[in-house]
Amino acid sequence: MESKQKKLKFPNGFLWGTATSAYQVEGGITNDWSEWEAKRAKSKKFKNKKLNPDDYICGKACDSYNRYEEDFDLAKSLNTNAVRLGIEWARIEPKKGVWDVKEIKHYAQVLAVAKKRGLKTVVTLWHWTSPLWIAKAGGWANKETITRYLRYVDLIVNELGGNIDYWVTLNEPNLFTFFSYITGKFPPEKHNIFKANKVMNNLVKAHNNAYDKIHEYFPNAKAGITGLYNYIEPAHKWNFVELFLAKFIHKIWNKNMLDKTIKNSDFIGCNYYFHDRIVWYPPFKKNLNKLVHDKGWEIYPEGMYHILKFLQKYKKPIYILENGLADRGDKLRKQFIKDHLFYVHKAIKTGADVRGYFHWSLLDNFEWAEGYAPKFGLFTVDRKTFERKARPSAKFYGEICKTNSINF
Length: 408
Ligand code: GCO
What we know:
The chain is an alpha/beta fold. About 40% of the residues lie in helices and about 15% in strands.
């Protein structure tokens, strides 16, 4: 068997990293989500389910606000050369027009420490959460939020820009809009397609303007959005209704935002998690689910290849800024990483300009509405002591990063 193994090399200078977001790991943040979680925990529906509120309230998260040095050391121990992390707007501007100097200094320190460790920094400026005052004023449905966001971006550019290598203006605008304004799973729990459309348009404008702002100060900056790209296909290739539906959903989900922002993007950030096999009858998605992880999502590495081939058409460098799975027992993670990277490599070999892979996530963290149950981390985090421990797959990923290759 051994002798049949092939070494698949990645391009020189490929970025290997891990990804987190501010709210999911830092702890101690007051924003629209923290308020929503507190309210939800008191609701009848929640109480009836007899769930433990502590599992659904972000609270101290992984305490990365205080433990970022340790976290960068963990990232380094995996031989990564880059790290994706977030800045929390609610910390920087807790009240309208009031900049928190202490927090700005904090992030300056965080970024300086990452750079000192030799890590390229990929920084997300907005990862779904907003300061309370923004949410109270209507959030992203209010076009004023664009101006306010741009003021925040302006501040970050001025104060922290020197240590930001890659700018991610927005994380997954598509999923945010869908869950917050259509299905109502996320705050502000709206079900309004018109509002959703407005929100999407405002996010597009916010990105396009933020891009210009970043480049005003740093003409050579690399800025983009990271989107959630699903591999969408008809369940039966000969079924025209399914074919049409799959195309339609692909257009709305994967294409629309990209088409409106690609001119103002130095790269495409790609988060890949999902395969959607479309059937013509509701609920429209019917996957074969031969292999699923703890969250019940299908593991479909081949979809990575199809998505990268789709993104290739936009002729921009691509960075995979998220890919991962919930796997408490760490039974599937190694194979998951290896298989997905096989398809990343295949896409590169056939012309896709993929320049980096960031595994979601460095740590077990707060998985939004699902709380702390899903375990996405290469490292576990003790919920009481915050002690971090490597899962076996961490070492495996570390070898890949070290050798810039996978054995297949
Ligand atoms: C997303 C978010 C992350 C999630 C991760 C796992 O892609 O949904 O960017 O915050 O935690 O994807 O679901």
